[in-house]
Design a protein that fits this description.
alpha/beta, six-stranded parallel β-sheet, 12 helices, 19% strand, elongated
């Protein structure tokens, strides 16, 4: 049986043929959803919001697999939640169960095939009219197909929203969708906002890497950065990112930018260099960080494209630091290693960097962002 918090969980004894089969279920109901927007960083933001929403409704959150897109694969790949994270810390905050366990042990008893209804705010474009079309497109179809889920109908929950801190809205959810009639609220997409709602940032403390990921991170650090502190860098510079940063002027809170500029730009203005800093700007900022932390002997670089290893080596030769990166792409291991750096420089706009920043904040470790705050008034700095 999956992990449940001992809170309003009811166990039933079911007589099937001549065998007694027991199973446990949450009589307060469940929340399921497809993490169908973006890659890991976006999905992690959504997860924190969904966690808060399930807590507000007093429902068990069904932990969805992570949706991944791999080179050469036509359809998305669904990776079990606990492949990367330890589920136990989450139970301190709310009731949870992995989707694999729920579908195998609970769904057959409380969520029959003809009662599986998809939830969406308004109808989505797809094969059917007045429908959520929950399985139209990739990753929507492959996600639900992984668990052989077909939906018999659609439910449009608008104008309700999923602000877990709006007591009036939450009460309306509870009254309209009573668990006795609606044991599972299965959302077409995450019942959460992007970027992560400010009130939910602190929930990062319950999202902990599992021992396998942590051991790999510790081993890499031991074998490649032993005998001194290290600076972690996240460089977001792939062609898709270059195109995304062209929208900075029209999107003052683009992607994860609120982590720097605030949700209403109350902390500053988003600039192009914060999204896509030049190589010169980055090299200067790395030098300033190394001067600030003279005990750092290594620089670890994570990137979606260009790690700038040669440029960094040439620019940092007087600092006598060793440059390193993973030999094979492994974004989750990158994240875990960056989370343990003595100091971290990330990208304001990137949700990948945002995950690292939240993770480090939990541990009280220092971080900063490329080109933020603006250093224009310090242009005569000695470098």
């Amino acid at each position: 049986m999956g992990i449940f918090q001992n809170n309003i969980i009811k166990c039933l004894i079911i007589l099937v043929n001549i065998f007694n089969i027991s199973y446990c279920y949450d009589e307060s109901g469940y929340i399921a959803y497809c993490p169908c927007m973006g890659r890991f960083g976006n999905q992690a933001d959504h997860f924190l919001g969904a966690l808060a929403f399930s807590k507000a409704l007093n429902r068990t959150l069904i932990l969805p697999p992570w949706v991944e897109y791999r080179y050469g694969e036509v359809k998305s790949i669904q990776v079990p939640f606990d492949t990367y994270f330890d589920t136990k810390p989450l139970t301190v905050y709310n009731k949870i169960v992995t989707m694999e366990t729920f579908m195998q042990e609970v769904a057959p008893n409380i969520w029959p095939q003809d009662k599986r209804i998809s939830f969406c705010y308004t109808p989505r474009i797809g094969d059917y009219e007045k429908s959520c079309n929950a399985k139209s497109g990739n990753p929507f179809g492959p996600f639900w197909d992984t668990f052989n889920i077909e939906f018999s109908d659609s439910e449009f929950y608008g104008p309700l929203n999923y602000d877990a801190y709006n007591k009036i809205i939450i009460q309306q959810w509870i009254i309209k969708y009573r668990p006795q009639e609606w044991p599972v609220l299965a959302f077409t997409g995450a019942p959460a906002s992007f970027p992560v709602q400010a009130e939910n940032v602190h929930l990062q403390k319950y999202l902990k890497w599992n021992v396998q990921i942590l051991d790999k991170a510790k081993l890499f650090i031991k074998e490649n950065m032993n005998g001194g502190g290290f600076l972690g860098l996240h460089l977001r510079n792939g062609q898709d990112w270059v195109r995304a940063c062209e929208h900075v002027k029209d999107s003052p809170t683009l992607f994860a930018a609120p982590q720097c500029v605030g949700y209403k730009n109350e902390k500053g203005t988003l600039t192009s260099s914060m999204c896509l800093p030049t190589k010169g700007e980055m090299l200067k900022q790395v030098k300033r960080a190394l001067k600030k932390f003279p005990d750092i002997k290594y620089v670890f670089v994570a990137s979606d494209s260009n790690h700038m290893i040669e440029e960094l080596k040439k620019s940092l030769k007087d600092f006598h630091v060793t440059l390193t990166k993973l030999n094979n792409s492994n974004p989750h291991l990158d994240l875990a290693i960056l989370g343990k750096a003595n100091y971290f420089i990330g990208n304001c706009v990137s949700s990948f960097s945002a995950f690292v920043k939240r993770d480090r904040d939990v541990s009280g470790l220092p971080s900063e962002f490329w080109s933020f705050p603006s250093r224009k008034k310090y242009k005569h700095d000695e470098l």
